[in-house]
Amino acid sequence: MSNAMTSHDCNKVVLKMYLALDGELSTTEMQEFLFELDRCSCCFRSFEQEKAFRTFLVNKIERRCMPENALQKLRDTLGMPNIARI
Amino acid sequence: METPEISPEEKIRRDALFQREFVPHMDTLYNFGFHLTYNEVDAQDLVQETLLKAYRFIHSYQEGTNAKAWLFRILKNAFINEYRKRARQPDPIDYEEVVHYQDREDASYSGYVDLRQEIFQGLMGDEVTIALNHLPVDFRTVVLLCDIEGFTYEEIASIMDVPIGTVRSRLHRARNMLKEELKTYAASQGFKENR
Ligand SMILES: [Zn+2]
Predict the structure, then answer these.
(1) Residue pairs spanning A and B at CB distance below 8 A
(2) Does any domain span residue B96?
(3) Where are the alpha helices (DSSP H) in A1-82?
(4) Mean of the pLDDT values across residues A59-76?
(5) I need a labelling partner for B143 at 20 to 30 A (CA). Which of A52, B10, B23, B151 fits?
(6) Residue B66 belongs to domain spanning
(7) Which residues of chain A have a CB within 8 Å of the CB of B120?
């Protein structure tokens, strides 16, 4: 898992994986990260799993909207009858 | 609510600004408040308090400011204050306490919790909400802000008043805790890890 120039460290790649999925890598860092994924099927597998987990989480977490009566209370308190949900 | 003397034109300008910049975030604020408290009335109160406060300080608001992050910060602080007030005796959740038990970035990065797709795809939404609910509130907050609201680490750091490194380590830790809990649910449902 290494070439003459650089060695592949799975732990470091996994660390980068979180940053990559959170959109916290620069373009260059992202390219380096993707290059590392091509070099190691373990890292690639971890990446795919983590990505699927994130999607799963986002889809399953319950989302609620402000109830209409609470919105009305806000309109009344602020004296702004026209406040409208967008 | 009492507002210092302002002209009718200024009132119209402020109301329009409020509708344009703050109201669009109302539902996500409510959702955040709901996941912090798991109580609809408390969540409604938090949103009211947040938006009233934002309106009160609207004269200081500059267009182009990150309104969403500002509102989330106000709501988070309102939540902490409310819990401090309530937490006379045994704290149900102590927002600050949780902070100490891990914050060293390096130490918290140990380990990748492997949660295979076969495991979590059998889970329903309810279990995820319950698992999230079980996380200490600091950890739940980072997951909500990052995964649900899509805030950057930098924004989360300014919403939560912690360094970016802490955001990163808490997120890592929180997701691992979630995975562990979801694995336990899956196991209790009789899911066997084969392989
Ligand atoms: Zn690797």
Answers:
(1) 104
(2) no
(3) 10-21, 27-39, 41-60, 68-78
(4) 93
(5) B23
(6) 1-90
(7) 52-53, 56
- Regarding an ipTM greater than 0.90, the answer is no
Structural domain tally of chain B? 2
**pTM of the prediction?**
0.84
| Every domain of chain A and the residues it spans | 10-78
- Verify whether the Cβ–Cβ distance A58 to B148 is below 8 Å: yes
Answer whether residue B97 is part of any domain: no
Judge whether B6 and B14 are in contact, CB under 8 Å: yes
With respect to residue B170, please indicate whether it lies within any of the assigned structural domains.
yes
DSSP secondary structure, B43-72, as one string: HHHHHHHHHHHHHHTGGG--TTS-HHHHHH
In terms of pLDDT, which residue wins out, B68 or A85?
B68
Q: Chain A contacts of B12, Cβ < 8 Å?
A: none
**Chain B residues with CB inside 8 Å of A66's CB?**
26-27, 29-30, 44, 47
